[in-house]
Amino acid sequence: MSDETGTRLTERFDKACTEAVAVHGADFRKGTTIPYLSHPLAVASIALEFGADEDQAIAALLHDVVEDGGGEEKLIELRAKFGDEVARIVDALSDAKPATGTEKPAWWIRKESYMEKLRGEDAAVALVCASDKLHNLRSIRADHVDHGPALWDRFATKRRGTLWYYGRLAEILPTLLVDGDGARLAALIVEEYTELLDQILRDGREHTNETDLEAELAEGRAMEELAHQKIDPEPKDEIDPTVTS
Q1: What's residue 236's pLDDT?
Q2: Alpha carbon of 67 to those of 87, 108, 154, 185, 191: distances in Å?
Q3: Better-scored residue on pLDDT, 208 or 70
């Protein structure tokens, strides 16, 4: 974390911005015309707001580049350019490290493994993770207002998998971020997730009541158990191949 004088960003952060543009500059956020680069910039901003040091801010900017930009080779490149700590955090936040042109493992298995790994991470990793998930949750809630249930078609596992995933994160992150700015950030994750559930229940377009929602969340937990056994609960032919995870 930063000291009481605040985090001072150097040319390393400038270099990381250039790296993020190189990887994400031509991409868009899922199901939108919003440049994808807006996401890592927002994640870095949130991380800095909640006490990130420069290494953590750089990792926030680059948190997706290993997943999206070349796997282990990219991780080695990041370590050479930005140092061990940035590479360590980015590695911890990557739920897969596919080489260019290869596919990621099945979504449920990948995410369940990520949750297991996250439970053992330190506050530096958790801070960047929470910054990422807070921005995602805010975006999901805002898009849900505009698009209602059509929003869930953007996600490979639709509403069920999305709610399970963020629900688990809302449970895990407060156990890792227990003091000061980190605890405030974790509390915002819980708040945003709870509000998302309430928003679904209030939205007549969803045709969902509390019983329906509880059943759906229970289904997600059952799928998690299968994924823990490395059994894919939703084989590829049951998932729309036109959407991404």
Answers
A1: 65
A2: 13, 16, 19, 24, 28
A3: 208
